Structure formats: C-alpha cells, structure tokens
C-alpha cells in the first residue's frame, strides 16, 4: 500500500470537510442546473472537460460521463454527497496544483456554494432550454392598463418594459409607418401618392388594409427571398479558384414564388431538402432541391473530385443545422461539440443523409433538371404534339408516355436519328450505363484509362461517331471497342489541342459495318506522359447511314430541326444513388476524410429527438423530423429570423447559435409563444406570422429614442421604441432606383450584370454590363460571382455567399458615403431624380426642391430644410455658371447649369442618413 497517497487522501478529505463547513451557507434554495450551474461550468470548466478535451477522463457535457469514474478512480460527482465528490474537493483545494480550475482564479464562494448545494440536491441535469420543445400552455402576461395593447405580442414586450421601468414609445407617424411597412414587406419604398392615400384613409382598418395589400404584393417574395438566399448561399458561380458560371437562377425564382404563394414553412423545408424523394415529384419540387446544390465546386485541374465531394457533403451538414436548428456544427466534424451535448459520431450519422447523393464535384454538375421558359415550353409542347401526330403507326411508341417535356423530346429525337448523347445524360440515359474511371466512380473530365459503356447498341446503320471535346493539350485518344475493353477495336480518333479547356471542337471516327446489337466501350487513353486529366467531353453523336427520320417528309424533318432547336435551362438538383450503389459513411478521425474510421448509419442527434415513426431513414425522413412538432428548434429559429428582419435584432441575437454559447433570449416566453403560434395556429404560414408581428403596437412604435431608453437599452433589445436600422445593400440600391423612377420591376429570369468598375473584376475578365432597362432590375437579380461580388453590395455588407450567412454584421465606413456619391448607377439615379425636380416648375426653384425632397423622404420639408437645399442649389448653380466646378459627366440633351445644380442636390438627398435608414 502507498501510505503517502493514503495520508494525502485522508488529509484532503479532512481539509475538504473543514473548508466545506467554512464556505457553506443556507442550502434551502432549489438549485437549477440551467440557471445556476451551467453558466459556471461553461465559463470555468468546459474548456478542459467538454467536447474537445476530457482532461482526467472527465466531461461535463453529458450527465452519464460526469457521474462516471474518472482517471483518478473516483467519480467526480456523487449525487447527494458533495463532501465526498472529487469535483467539490478540487474546487476548494488550497493547493493551486490540485485546485480547479487549473491555472485560473478560483471559484467564488457563491459559485462553490451553488455547486455544493446542487450536488447535495442530487446533481440533477437539465437540457438547455432551446433543446426542450416549446410548450403550448404559455399565457401572455397581464400588463398595466396604461399600455395600448393591440395583440398578445404586446403583452410580452410591455411586461418586460414594465419590469425594467420603461414605457413604450408612442405610435409612429403614418408616413413613417407606411415607409416602414413597404420596406419590411416588399423591400421597396412607397410613392408619395401611396403615402398620402394611407394618411387620408381614416378608417379603423386602414393600417391592416395596407398590411394585407403588401403581403399580397408580388414584390413580397423578392424581399423575403433576399433573406433566404443568404442562408442558401445562392450564387451564380461555383467558387474556388476557377469560379466558373453556374446556371441555378431557377432556384432563386422558386424561392421568390414560394414566399409569394405563402408556401407553408414545413413544406418549404421538405421540398428544399428532399423534394426529389417525394412521390412523383414535380419540376418545381426538383428545382427546390437546388438548395444544397449551391455548395461550391472546384473545377481546377488536378484536384481530387472525391475530396471536394466530401467537402460539399460536410458543408451541407453545417448549413442544414445553421439554417433550421440555429446550431453551429462545424466543430463537431473533428470532435464532440465543445459546449453542447452533440457527440463527434453524431455529426457523421447526420452526414449519412447527404452522403448518398449523385453529385460528385464534376464539371458538368450532374444531376441536372432541364426545363424551359413558359413560352418556349408552350411552343415545344405544340411542336412535339405535331410530330407525334404525324408519326407512322409503327413509330408511335417512340414518344415516352411518362417523363418531363425535355425527356420526351430527347428520346424521340434520339430514336429518329438525332443520336447525340450529352455528357449531362451519361448517368441517366437508358442506352448508356456510365462514364467510368478506374475507381468505378463517374467522371466527366476524362482521365487516362477511363471508359464509357453502352449496352445493346445497334450500330448496323451507324457509319461514324463524333465526339465534341475541349483540351489544352494533345496526345489523348478514344478507342471504340466491341463487347469488352479488350474487344475488337472498330474505331479510333486522336483528340488534339483545341486551344482552351472550354474551347470545343468535333472529332470524328469512321466505323466499319457492324451487324446486330453490341455493348460498346469507349476507352480513353494517352500515348505519352501526359497529366492525368486528358480532355473534356461534351457529347457523343452517332451518324447513321439511313436514320429513321429520312423516311419522313421534308416538312416533318423541318419540325424535327425546330424541335431540336429548343435549348433548355439547366439547374443542378439533388438525387440519391440507387440502393445497390449506396455509399458507406464512416467517422473521419479528427475530421480527416482520408482517415475513415467506424461505420455509422444515418440518424439525428439524440438530444434533438428522433426521426418520426413511419418515416424513412433518408433525407425525406430527416426533413420531416426538422418540421415535426417535437423538434425543439426549427420553429424558434424561423420565428427569430423573421423577427430580426423586422426589428433589426433577433429575440436571440446570435441567430446561428441557439446553444449554450449563444446570447440569451431577450424575451424567451415570447419566442416560445410565437413558435407555437407559427406551428399550431398559423400552420407554418409566413405571411400570417409576419402580419401578427407588424400588427402589434410594439412594431408600430416611433423609433425616437429618449436619453433614459438609450441608457437602459442602447441597442433596443427590450423593444421600448420602433426599429431604426440601416437598409440592406440590396434595399439601398433598390430604393435609389425606385425614387429616381429608373427601377425595372420585372420578376424572375436570369441574373443581370449592372455596371461596375472595370478594376473590380480581380482580373478574371470583363464584366459585360447590361444596357437599357435591364441594368435597373432589383438587386436580388444581380449576378453573384463568388470571387468578386458586385462592389456596391459588398460595400454595404453584402456577402459573397461562399457559406451560409445567418446575419449580416452591419458596418459604417467612408466607402459607403463615397459609393452613394460616385457609383455610376447612383449618379444616373440622381440625374433621373433631378429631371423630375427640374420638370416640377419652370421658374420656382423652391417648388422643385420640395418635390425632390418629398419624393426621397416621403414627407414635406420644413422651411429650414428648404433653405439649406436652396443654399446648396444656388452655390452649385453659381459655380457651374462661373465654370469653377466641372460636372463629372455629360447630362445629355438637357445640358444646363440649372439641371446640373439639381443633380448635385439630388445626389445630396440620396446621401442622407435618413434615406438609407429604416425608421
């Protein structure tokens, strides 16, 4: 026996007992783990005894781990017995080498007492409040009758104000409310006439009528899609070094339409995460799955496609949790969550939901959906119907009965002799199995020794085969073989340098006569020491000696040419691999994808419940778990997002982090009550939720701040006044275009490229700016290039959308003022506004200035403001007349010193803080 250790242990016990009685106070108080203990552990203990480190074999994340025997051989916590619990003994130890926390100040007496009482009371654990489903029995509190309560939201807000000895602000003026509502619900300002109509409407339902009209506006969807696209990391390019263009704008349009149609949020969730797994999914439901095809893709030569496929899958886990669960999961990729009870292996169990999709970080971004614009779809359907009607009886079965329009068209054209198989279709065509590489995974950037296999191909009428390729090197070959990779070679073509990797050229090989049906192999190889990546392959085309189409009339073939001319819109979508090709998912040791460990099955974190009974264990089941009534986070997180968009701050400010390290909610009962309302009363209707919030008296308060309110709640977390926040980057530009009369309010369609400085393209090439009205479309439609987003938007805190963004951090910089003054679009808008001012009255400058002010600020200026504007105008006019100031740009046919002076005034109006702020 080690007597030294024995005496040390006895000494420690005696010392602990003596200190115990010194520091203990009244223990009658019931100790709450969440309220009293968790903050101490998270602040003082979790760094060494949490998810990252488990010093001494001890972790406080899970109760079973904390009660287990530590490396010392003793349990750290003995429920009901603080005196003999090693945790208690170590926090009161006099020796700094033994006392916890190690190498840090000791706990206070109050903290020690709380821990001791908690242990003696049984060391009861509680889940973090956010991981407990919101309860239905929350009753809005009573408040003073002095407060004007318009709905139950006000009771929660006003009770908090009452508790903090604050009073609500009076209702904002009607012109302020009108502008606030328009900006919040449509993202656009009202016109002076719309404001005046609201002011003149004295009916009791005037405000509600305006709310309903704005909720029904088609621009509602654009405003709220802008918020969602940040979460979806939507962009028009793929990211990384090459950052090539991506056609995915159909997803953006789907989001706009979903908000306009008030798609229930639970359906909105399921269709984005698993629309392809719904029974007989529609085209819209497939487009919705592009949510997770917004991940970046690396097209740089020499990269490992599997590495970046895995990177995308990992990113989808983090994004899903941030968007719907308000939980940061990136750290769990390498170890258990540092602060919340999510184990390392649970990250990979969740990753298994996404690990079986067909996308593989390849250039062509398969799988894709092929759709048409409504007008093209109508014409194509009509042409296809004509062709089908004029087919001979024996050829009628060439048109498939099932499938979307594109699939029917392609199948018919192929069988009639337009035998071209696009690379996009390699994996899906019934006549083509796969484009295979030595590792049996699908490729499109052709590598040495990779191959394609066609089954049951009739080459009896085929005289030649063409390949459309692009390459910057020479020395690649395509061999055509019968029945096996070692079978008879019936054709060969060399792929020579086409100039660039995206510069296409057709290569053709003649074939001998081949009878019967065969399996055809296309083998890609090199004849010298080349890089592994040989060339890009776009399509393969069979040239028939007597294609079926030749037995038909010239008119019929003209229709076929017309049918073939309709070019589809492509959108990358989600699709699972077939069961026989499903991937295994393994835990990555320390997050390293090249060090796979234990095999795991798809599942959700234990602390957040389980997949609803009867649901499949795939993405569809996972999506339905997210919106199940038992999920504690989804409704809370969604409600918090919408609240933040209206008030400038969320009820929980850290919208991306609802866990124990997030900011505590300012109104926790209100958040839970709204979450229950959202699910049970509104049935996940976003419009109903937003209406409930904006109808509250809390929302309608004036934003004027008193010294007392600034002192007690400087950031307005208690909602003692109305919101006052700077507009988003998109809203700043849209408002400038709107008040100037330039804005183009067309909905939907491909992204646009408005003017931008040539120097801002970072050397990746020219930005061909739109001309005419297209350049003045809403900012939501601006082409987002990840490596070089539009500089005006980034100046006002817009994002590159490389990753999911829950909230934009607002900044104030001199660049923002310089942009408002000098950006070419803003200056053009100032000129357009000046023309309106100039046309107001031929001689009365005051009337012109007043009209400009009212157009911009939506209220009548007082005499002091008119005087200031007149001084600015007269000074500018004098300088232009004396030619001591040169106008920066020509003003066209209206070139006059008067107009130039008005442009300067308009430019100043568009620079006012009040103009770029929502009050």
UniProtKB/TrEMBL annotation:
Matching entries from Gene3D superfamilies are given as:
Galactose-binding domain-like
One GO MF term? carbohydrate binding
- Family matches, as PROSITE patterns: CBM6
Query: InterPro entries recorded for this chain?
Result: CBM6, Cellulose-bd_IV, Cyt_c-like_dom_sf, Cyt_c_Planctomycete-type, DUF1549, DUF1553, Galactose-bd-like_sf
Q: Name one Pfam family in it.
A: PSD1
Positions of the CBM6 domain: 419-543
What are the UniProt keywords, alphabetically?
Signal
Protein's recorded name: DUF1553 domain-containing protein
Q: Say which species the protein is native to.
A: Roseihalotalea indica
